[in-house]
Amino acid sequence: MRGEFVNKLTRDEIAKMVDYASALNANATKDDVIRSCDDAIENKFNAVAVTPDYVALASKRLKGSGVKVLAAVGFPWGSNATGTKVAETKRAIEDGAKEIDMVINIGWLKSGDYKSVEDDIRAVVKASKEGGEDIIVKVIIEIGYLTDDEKIKASRLIRDAGADFVKTCTGVGPGAATIHDVALIYNAVGKEIGVKASGSVNYLEDLLQLHEAGATRFGSRSLALINALKKLEK
After folding, report:
1. Catalytic machinery residues
2. CB 225 within 8 A of CB 202
3. What is the model's pTM?
4. Which residues contact 173 (CB under 8 A, 6 or more apart)?
5. How are beta strands 99-103 and 194-198 bridged, if at all?
6. d(CA 148, CA 112)
7. Can you tell me whether residue 80 is helix, strand or coil?
8. What is the 3-state secondary structure (H, E, C) of 161-185?
9. In order of start, what are the domains of the chain with their CATH numbers?
């Protein structure tokens, strides 16, 4: 556990761990994406998460701001062919994405086809690193569908495939990040790669508790979290 340092985090340090996902919806409009980018700039977040079709728009809006574009690949089910995920990744990076959040092939994992799962992840990691060594790859395991043993197995496959983070969930499927799940993943691989918690980071207290359990990146679209961070500025 790393909790002894949690209460020493500054407002800006907390904000830089947040990937803002307010426009990651099937019905997100161009105006929604622009608003999400502007909110992220104002709050000094790490990144704005968008679907691949909006990467170019977000990249243009965020240029020079210090906020990165995060592209969701294989979103939301992870059942795309590997070649499709690779193509999405390459195009997203060409359009300006600096981070890739890909969804694991959940069905393959639950079928016990671990080699295919790892190869799928490795292909996206390879495409990302070819796009730039500074590209961050996070892999979503969708914890609501998995047993604890499957969460551990998936996390270790992600580590072995060379990704940078294990991410708990998309926010579309069942389940959300819990202290139990974050600690489980952190204890399995978190000292070697990062853990991103998403799906339940609605309040500052949630973020701090999940950080204490081992998460260092957070996916959120919560206005309550934004308001809490604004209060820290005063």
Report:
1. 101, 167, 196
2. yes
3. 0.94
4. 76, 77, 142, 144, 145
5. unpaired
6. 14
7. coil
8. CCCCEEECCCCCCCCCCCHHHHHHH
9. 3-233 (3.20.20.70)
